[in-house]
Amino acid sequence: MSESASISSGIADRYATAVFEIVKENKNLSKLEASLDDLSAALDDSADLRDLIASPIYSRDAQQNAITAIADKMGLVPSLQNALALMATKRRLFVVPHMISRLREMIAEEKGEVTADVVSAKALTAKQSEKLSETLKAKVGRDVKINATVDESLIGGLVVKMGSKMIDTSIRSKLNSLQNAMKEVG
Predict the structure, then answer these.
(1) Could you tell me the pTM of the whole model?
(2) In this structure, are residues 113 and 49 in contact, taking their beta carbons and an 8 Å threshold?
(3) How much is the pLDDT for 5?
(4) Strands, DSSP E only, in 45-164?
(5) I need a surface site. Which of 18, 47, 52, 129 has the fewest CB within 10 A?
């Protein structure tokens, strides 16, 4: 991990821990989870919002006013709104994506869940996702939340990552293995 990424994750971790503890104390974890989903979707959909949190050309006041208005309009939980406003005054909005990830990890841990990043050649149906989640739950003994993405270059199959474990059943991987085996023969 690069030094700047390490610093960013450290800053994000401190804000995430503070928000998590306050929300947990108030028994609002489900509302925090919904707020994180909304904020994450807004970041994915809006290039302007990504520019606002990352660009140094905006003044502290402009960032704070904008993020406060956005957070209020989105109806985010108050402790998250306050954290975002504080982050703007400290010029730390650039760590918001790291903070969202860390908060999701903390919520999953609190619920006894594990998150599995699943990459497939085609989008998984709800039934496929549910069956995969049940299969993984049987393996790890905890509820598994599926974070699914699509990569058509896999041709078929899945790549599943849970923590430090990875299962690659993609056709692309099998073709690469076959190609390497053929190189060794000839």
Answers:
(1) 0.72
(2) no
(3) 67
(4) 113-120, 143-150, 158-162
(5) 47
Q: What tokens appear for 175 in the block? A: 């073709």
Type of residue numbered 171: I
What is the C-alpha to C-alpha distance for residues 5 and 102, in angstroms, rounded to an integer?
14
> What does the DSSP 8-state code read for residue 186?
-
Question: From the first residue on, what is the mean pLDDT of each consecutive set of 10 residues in the chain (186 residues)?
Answer: 70 95 94 95 94 92 95 96 95 94 91 90 93 91 89 91 88 89 82
Three-state SS at 154: helix
Residue 91 to residues 4, 39, 68, Cα–Cα distance (Å): 15, 18, 14
CB neighbours of residue 70 within 10 Å: 17
Query: Residue 77: how many CA atoms within 13 Å on its side-chain side?
Result: 19
| Residue 27 CB coordination number (10 Å) | 8
Cα angle 38-42-46, degrees, rounded to a multiple of 5: 175
Structure tokens at 27: 């028994």
